[in-house]
Amino acid sequence: MIEKILTPKKPEEIFKNIEYRTPFPSNPEMQTFILGKHENIPPEFGWSLRGVKTVEDLYKPERIHVLNFLVDFAKKTKIRNFFSPVSDPQNGYISENRDFENKIEIGKDDNDESIFLHRSQKNLEGCEIIKGEMFITTTADCLTLIIKTKKEPVRVFAMHAGRETIFDINNPKRPTLMENVISMAKRIGYDPTDLEIYSSFGVAPTENFLHDEESGTHAKINKSRREFIEKKGWNDVYSNGYLNLYKMIENGFKDKGVPSSNITSDMSLDTLTAKDESGESRFFSNRRDSGELAGKGRNLSAFVWL
User: What is the C-alpha to C-alpha distance for residues 281 and 273, in angstroms, rounded to an integer?
Assistant: First the structure.
């Protein structure tokens, strides 16, 4: 479905490094995808939306490819509203009302109908998406998480899920993303057993974020992370010096009553090691990129309900 829309028809199109998934097989109209590197995209920006609050921000040369992509996608589909929360710094918060402060008209379709990008002013990780809308976030090794209710009426929430999203060792009293999702579900009338969880498009568990505890820069905080994990009893999360974010999400939800059969961790794409035919990296990766590119280039990860 999405593949037909985004398959490149010309060499210069920016849909070269793309992966598609159907998170919930019984709902093929719900699709998620990630867009990576392309020669027409400035590597020091990638798909970054950092600082975008007005349409003028999107007309800057380093971001015009994002604008062109969204308008082109809207014209090929019936999507007219794109929701992109600001997830920096990561805080695990989710918007239930989708009342984002910045509603930016980014263009019009062939019928002169407006196309909007919604940006949050407050820091958020995700929001609800209804039929006919798309969620977008920018990542560079962090996961994208989709929550769907099994019980009617079906509601879907999409969110960015990074290390500090899942748990912030510098602020241990702050609820984790998993705790926030469960609290929200209960407020709107769903039990943990009503939820389906799908995570994807991140760095592989064997390459994840944790540094050597003997490292002078990271030793103290990584020791605290390991102790946090051990206290939780999440024995399948930390191995050989690496932190498995997928397993952290699974454990966090299972602790709150979500059946393991309702949780899917799709680890089939590794944003760090994925290569194209020429051996070049397909996606931006915080773990890999260094020097001038460190922490800058971003992939565009999306969930759409067509």
Answer: 7
DSSP string, 152-176: SSP-EEEEEE-HHHH--TTSTTSPP
Question: Position of tokens 């899917």?
Answer: 264
Instruction: Quote the CA–CA distance of 303 and 142 in Å, as a whole number.
Output: 15
d(CA 16, CA 65): 13
What values do phi and psi take at 71, rounded to 5? -65, -40
What are 148-192's pLDDT values in tens digits? 999 999 999 999 998 888 877 777 788 889 999 999 999 999 999
